[in-house]
Predict the 3D structure of the following.
Amino acid sequence: MCRRDRETQKYLEYFQGENEGYQDLYQLALMNDLRNGIQKMIYIIPSNFLFGFSVSNKIREDFLQYYNIKKAFIFEKKIFEFTGTNVIICFFERKKFPKKEKIIFEGIKINKEVQKKVYILNPENHFRAGNEFEEFVKHYKAFKPLKVSYYLTIEEVEKNKGNNKIAVIDANAFNGKGYAKKVIYVNDDLYKKIKSNILFVRTIDTGSFDGRAGLYLIREVFGVDGILVSKSTYRTHPIQIFFNPQISEEDQVLLKDYFNLVLEYFREKNDSEFMTTYKYSNSEYTRKYLGLIQAKKLIETFPILVLKENERDEFKNLIEKKDVENIISFVKSFNQLKRLLS
């Protein structure tokens, strides 16, 4: 439930007291049935119950210590006329005693074909389905990870006015065909910051294969140097990334290629289940949303700050060859070894 929408304002009173922290009405329904001791339940609920990131962590942790999932039907196609939200049918059965333990069940995924798959929900990962990506970014963080921040805001521009001319798009001004282009004037420091950081994160699949979620070059896609947020920040907009410490443009391009290769590797391996389903569409694949925290964690596995010249050459060569299996192996062994030796 989006708390910014006027239609949802009347429901906010339900999310107080013992329901504080829950994110949707279906979550309140689950908890009410839990409190009333219902033994067996069949629920048709949004698929983000299984695959959602922070939006669903609390309900899964609170609810799944009391209930097992016996089986589930996962729909990645349009079911209901007036919503684009994908749904699952979950068969719940109450445990004899509350316990945070692994839940294993068979799921039947229905999209352009029908697939059977065994799901393992681990309490260490908030009972979230699609754990391989989370395991990778958790256990193979670089010894000296890149720090990132998001968004070029109008407030920052106003505080750093100057005589340097910068072309930007306005992420809050989409006219149906593209984002409005603007010229801003900033001081030397902000000019250098904007010009030195050439990447943006696309968090939402566009529906075409050349518009998947990932990292992209701002100038290549939009023909400008920056992405301005003139109003509120939204996670679904194109978002400029700023690095600390600053890395060269060459290394940012290397990061872009690494990030996208590894992201696609896990999407293929897990049928994109570690990402949140965005909405139903007629595109060639199910559109997904990549969380900004997920993007940050994947960037933090990029070991560029501690690579020696020969190691960098080897790593770059693997990326240029798109040898994803060996890229993953390199990062795992290198990052793990550096931590052990530290």
The two ends are 45 Å apart (CA to CA).
